[in-house]
User: Fold this.
Amino acid sequence: MGTLPDLGQMRRAQELNFGANFFDGPIPESVGTLRNLQTLVLSINFLGGSIPDSIGDLESLVILKLSENRNAQPYSGLSGTIPSALSRLVNLVELELFSNRLTGQLPPELGTMDNLQLFDVEFNPLTGQVPVEYAGMTSLREFYISNTDMTG
Assistant:
């Protein structure tokens, strides 16, 4: 196990796939400086802490996969709320956040993501209802919220 490297040094990167490794610790805030990034995969690791708001600065991002960051320890995985800053990812097509420890309600601001086709937050202890703003996701093809604590 080890932490992610300082991603801020990879400024020209267009795709980063650190999936299916043994990285632990938080996602570094420096990830938000990778303005050319189109794909970011940090799934199937042991990452913890909250999703940094700085990810919302990745204007070119098309695919964001932060799923399955849990291990056998209780309360492991990405935690906290889903940041409304993700709504700034206007080019995002795929958002995978499933199988973490994300809590709270779905941010209504994500309903403005016109290009989003895949939204997967299942297997998180999320609460509340699906915001009415999500009806505006006109490109959405796949929407997964099973195995959450959501109602309505």
In short: The chain is about 0% helix and 20% strand.
